[in-house]
Hints:
This protein is 58% helix and 0% strand. The chain is mostly helical.
Amino acid sequence: MxxxxxVEAAASGYLDLFSYQDxxxxxxxxxxxRGRAAIVSNLxxxxxxxxxxxxxxxxxxxxxxxxxxxxxxxxELLKVPGTNVNAIDKDGQTALHWAAREGAxxxxxxxxxxxxxxxxxxxxxxxxxSGQTAFDVITSGERSCFGxxxxxxxxxxxxxxxx
Length: 163
């Protein structure tokens, strides 16, 4: 109800549209980063929500969800027609780069996120500003000290990115 009231207020000129869109983006990015799939789903239903909008660093909701390993949120975002699975941030990194990097550091099991991104056309050949692909990120030695979990994740992701 509150959301529809905000939409009506923006449409009638009682709410600054730019401020409204900034807050909508902020809410979407925060919900994605925190793994709140239901909230993300509801926010995406609001007219004017841009699934590809970027924060100051160039990160999208998909980048944040992939970085944190939130499979449910990634799934919700990828349902939206026009979601740019290969959007790059200010460093030239995609959601695939971030999923690979975070999984390598934490052993978090981002292999499911990586599988989803690849199934929706994530380009494994995209190089960031330092010239690294997602495969390079995972094989660069930036691996966590979480032992066996990280090693299992590493092996699974290397296989996924070799396809």
